[in-house]
Write a structure and sequence with these properties.
Number of strands: 5
Strand content: 15-25%
Order of helices and strands: HEHHEHEEE
Number of helices: 4
Strand order of the largest sheet: 2-4-3-1-5
Helix content: 25-40%
Low-confidence stretches: none
Structural class: alpha+beta
Mean pLDDT: 90
Length: 130
């Protein structure tokens, strides 16, 4: 059993060594299901909660604390008022370099709206940052 444990440790070390560095600047399209994230929320807190959840989603997906939401996303989420945010939203998350030299984080995430006719069958897609 010691041999098996040692073998597993060696495999784990090998896997840790092979872990590749994340590319700095990347853009991906995601569909965020807002309805499940604001379920059981007071009416007057629904749309503010939806905005916070979009920020949280972007932080988790891109690994940056600094998340900036585009005005188009804000307008889309608020379009139906405070009580009724959209069920889903398709967004493009772009990890970008911070121009501000003295910023504590080198990278930030920009959230932009991607307009789609339907959300059916959409997957997370990498987008060329060209």
């Amino acid at each position: 059993s010691d041999c098996v444990r040692l073998n597993k440790l060696l495999q784990l070390e090998k896997m840790a060594g092979e872990r590749k560095a994340k590319p700095d600047l990347v853009s991906r399209d995601y569909t965020i299901h807002l309805a499940k994230r604001v379920h059981k929320t007071t009416f007057k807190a629904k749309t503010p909660r939806a905005i916070k959840q979009i920020k949280k989603f972007a932080q988790d997906a891109m690994g940056t604390k600094d998340v900036r939401i585009g005005t188009d996303v804000n307008k889309y989420v608020w379009a139906q008022g405070v009580r009724n945010p959209p069920k889903r939203i398709r967004v493009r998350l772009s990890r970008k370099r911070n121009e501000d030299e003295d910023a504590e984080e080198k990278l930030y995430t920009l959230v932009q709206l991607v307009e789609v006719s339907t959300f059916k069958g959409l997957q997370t897609e990498n987008v060329d940052s060209a």
